[in-house]
Design goal:
CATH class: Mainly Beta
Number of strands: 12
Distance between the termini: 34 Å
Shape: globular
Number of helices: 9
Order of helices and strands: EHHEHHEEHHHEEEEEEHEEH
CATH superfamily: B-lactam Antibiotic, Isopenicillin N Synthase, Chain
Structural class: alpha+beta
Length: 305
């Protein structure tokens, strides 16, 4: 566990930086606590997500993904790349949050009616009747700020200039939200909620289900359960950070398993480098990511020289 507040405190920073370095070098992930986000804020994220997935299918289809190559935004499940592809046992909603001028609001759920406000817009005076002020600034602003804190801490732990990773990532932040709904399955040993993969991000935040475990990480050729810690965020580095750090920080392989009796819901936030920037030695990394993911392969393998 990493206390994010301690990363910026002069009296505790060095000790916490050492813990961060060890966590990302050995596991590629950690549980973040003392991150400054209230329980009620995290519960609001879970609440509106769950309300959407409980809607009738016809209502959810109003923001369905368009069946075009490389289009991931909207409500759907797996993109089909081949007849032999193993499908994930999950429904999901992908939404692009940043850059702001690239948001496609036709894919944003209109029901529940406070969905978009919760994740995007600071409430006006008229909206405060149903959206409490503690949800401001909005989700993406909170996580953008946390991302900068963590990336600066990573570079400090490597004895590099504090802003060097941020500069490499560019000025136009890219951020995706993904809402994952895993329904119960009577034969959970025959399916996976998410197939084994590593993220193509710089950093990924995961808000776990409060009650139902499902996330597992691969280490020593074994799958380890990631425990649920109250109000903690699971944070892992993605392939882009593994490339930036020259392999010192490892992008962890992980998966999601299914429960036979209980549904599970999680919210993931993916932070990526500016799409116009080159994360050497790879170009257009985001374009190849999903092609490799659905083949059960690591896209980072394509970047090795």
């Amino acid at each position: 566990m990493i206390h994010l507040h301690r990363l910026s405190s002069p009296s505790t920073a060095q000790q916490e930086l050492a813990k961060l370095h060890h966590a990302l070098n050995s596991w590629g992930c950690f549980q973040a606590i003392n991150h400054g986000m209230k329980s009620s804020f995290l519960d609001k994220m879970r609440q509106v997500s769950k309300q959407f997935f409980q809607l009738p299918k016809e209502e959810k289809q109003k923001c369905a993904r368009e069946r075009e190559p490389n289009n991931i935004e909207g409500y759907d499940n797996d993109i089909i790349y081949s007849e032999n592809q193993r499908l994930d046992w999950t429904d999901r909603v992908y939404l692009k949050v940043l850059p702001e001028d690239q948001r496609k609001f036709k894919f944003w759920p209109q029901n529940p009616n406070d969905f978009s406000y919760t994740f995007l817009s600071p409430p006006t005076l008229n909206e405060c009747s149903f959206l409490h002020e503690e949800y401001c600034p909005t989700v993406y602003r909170k996580y953008k700020a946390e991302t900068e804190v963590i990336i600066k801490a990573m570079t400090n732990s490597l004895n590099l200039e504090e802003d060097c990773f941020l500069n490499e990532c560019g000025e136009r932040d890219v951020m995706f939200l993904r809402f994952n709904y895993y329904p119960p399955c009577p034969m959970p040993d025959h399916v996976l909620g998410l197939k084994p993969h590593a993220d193509g991000s710089t950093i990924t935040f995961l808000l776990q289900d409060k009650l139902v475990q499902g996330l597992q990480g691969l280490k020593y050729d074994q799958w380890f359960k990631v425990p649920i810690i109250l109000d903690a965020l699971v944070i892992n580095v993605g392939d882009q950070t593994e490339i930036l750090s020259n392999g010192i920080f490892r992008s962890p392989i992980h998966r999601a398993v299914i429960n036979s009796e209980k549904e599970r819901l999680t919210v993931a936030i993916f932070c990526l480098a500016d799409s116009e920037k080159e994360i050497k030695p790879v170009k257009n990394y985001s374009e190849i990511y999903f092609q490799y993911y659905h083949q059960g392969k690591r896209p980072i393998e394509a970047s090795k020289i």
